[in-house]
Queue: 3 jobs
Job 1
Amino acid sequence: MKLDGKTVLVTGSTDGVGRYVAAKLAAAGAKVLIHGRDGGRGRALADEIKRAGRGEAVFYQADLSSLAGAGGLAEAVLADNTRLDIFISNAGIGSQNDGPARQISADGHELRFAVNYLAGFLLAYRLLPLLKASAPSRIVNVASLGQHPIDFDDVMITKGYSGSRAYAQSKLSQIMFTIDLAEELKGTGITVNSLHPATYMNTTMVRAGGITPISTVEQGGEAILHLAVDDDMADKSGLFFNGMNQAQANPQAYDAAARKRLRALSLELTGLTRP
């Protein structure tokens, strides 16, 4: 995909793999909408991209741990831009950010489910009009090989909580949403795919979990860019990748009844209405 004149939103792009992806897209000529919670880091990246003199960068500050924060980001993007060619849903928190105890979001939802999954669900649907108007366009959901089936009797994991289970459940939720949204968007010119970019990249999230990195940010970033811009992905949708290779997700991802339950719950929690 030629990126001159294209607009790309990368959530969680002030650090780690998101930062790498945003910089590479700008260097290829795209207008990159940078997102993060830290205003200083966001503005520093935007300035760095502008100094490089190739693409364009605009920073949007938003906290995706609240639905209001995710909704506000969508409103700002819609108000400021006449097109959106690629949406990379990358923002997330790991299994141990701010400690191992169970945490809840501003809306009362389990925090990892809220940040890693619900925020991206809400953003994707709110941004669909712009993505449709810019088609052919792409959505890339940055998920993980760490996947745990959803217990629909206790989605918010009030019993038997662990950070790793919560993280893995949120990532499987992203993959299930990817499959459903790809089916919904058939014929619109929008593709939707998800991936595990790389294992234990050298990122803040990984280091916060006390884990020694074994992959580079560059490896993960190139896998994300493959789904976002490469020509061989132009007509592929609803798929899960492990790095550069198509892979199988947890079996629950392919359970249509489970996906239907997750969709109904997600619409209820976000207040969205869909056909």
Note: The longest strand covers residues 190-196.
Job 2
Amino acid sequence: MSEIEPVGLGFIARLHDQTYAAALGPGPGDVVLFSEEPREGFDQVGGYWRRRVRRDELQWLVLLRTVGAFGGEPCVVLDEDEDGLHIAYTGHSGPKAEALGYWMVDHGAYEVVVPHEEVHSIRVERIPVPSQPAQGASVSNM
């Protein structure tokens, strides 16, 4: 297995030379930043702090995702535990996903938990998110 630790999925953003975990929304041009420590402009919610900003206020916004290959087919790592890696199929063939042991969790979406050593070519992708949402775009959950 690769030396890269799987990180799952998530957004990160940079504001005023500080990097934060982030989430899109509630509006198409909005981002919510999260901190584990009190920060100026952040409101405490439970055990963390959050701040809503406009996307165009950010230095950058990226989607981090850990990807690899299982059975020669592309996948994204969703989670990791003592049972192995929880992965989702990112190829385009339902029959191929089912042949590899994935189970259908929704129409066209397949997932499986496999031993760590069966996932190869693990790497972290950083996918830039534009500072302005596309016209007519709505927020979608990943």
Note: The mean pLDDT is 90.
Job 3
Amino acid sequence: MKIIPYGKQEITSSDIEAVVSVLQSDYLTQGPAIKEFEDAFANYIGVKYAVAVSNGTAALHLAAMTINIKPGDKVITTPITFAASANCVRYCGGEVVFADIDANTFLLDLNKVRALLEQHPKNTFKGIIPVDFAGYPVNMEAFRQLADEYNLWIIEDACHAPGAWFTDSKGNKQYSGNGVYTDLAIYSFHPVKHIAAGEGGMITTNKKELYEQLLLLRTHGITRKTDDFSNSVAIANGYPTNNESVFPGWYMEMQELGFNYRLTDFQAALGLSQLKRADMGLKRRLEIAKNYDNAFQHHPKVKSQGIQLTENNFENAYHLYVIEVNDRLGLYNYLRTKNIFAQVHYFPTHLMPYYRQFGWKPGDFPVAENYYSRCLSLPMYPSLSDEQQSYVINEINNYLATV
């Protein structure tokens, strides 16, 4: 059997044609493909505004800047996530405060967050960054109610969950990142994600003022909008026309310290092409997850992701399919000898050496740490064949029969 990774992109002839079309056009960057991708993605998610950026980490950084995280601001997030979910707070000088996860969903535990808030005076914390880990959507309505009670903003890290949804108390499907209960949400287009653009990210919001700030910060803090200029026409070396002062066509202003976090047009073209079959990819992920469910739900040595994620009012986008086993290292090493490259998501962020300098230590979050000691992400991507998946399942069973 050829190598079976935990995640993998699928590039079709349509993807290649879309990229080649842009390469043969007049624009490689800052062209029309960017807005086309943004508009299509916003429509897919069901949100008003979307801003394409160079990667998911850039999306987090700009979201943190736009929500105005300042030095010393305390922000709550989960320890079970990629480090960037927390790092964006540090980029702005803020302080990351972790809360433990729910043992069943692996998501930031709402009750643990509430307890943390209750233990401190009001206004101690500024915001929350929940993560739709593995593709399972956070109940953002519940987090919004808690956030409103303590005057907090919410940035949703939805990198794992395009197409995921939960049903709110009004009976409405709320898709991850649609901005109904959050201020900002972010996505990644890394190759192992649902939509692959090589690299790339997206920020979504329903708030026009945040959208406009994101556009400014994405491109060095520079604007070409005449109505927003602060300098005079004279300073810009403009000239009078029809008794009216006019800025010269070349003039632009840097009004804030921004970054070059732009996405290229050929990446946008690839992302847009992939977006067109996103529903098909999600459908296949659900089929693969169901096969894993059937294989492991009643296995005495496996706690399968499907066991705890059975609520009818949630749709998991299954970026990952996670199982928990006692001999995780043994199984991991055995699978690699069979060309099955399962992965671990994630080593708890609070135990990374960088974050331990702030006083975090083993034992701080026992649920997250116990999860880490047992978790293994199995191959999960739309082009995974039934034959390959059966091979993965059989080899897991073969190993577990020996321990």
Note: Residues 278-296 form the longest helix (19 residues).
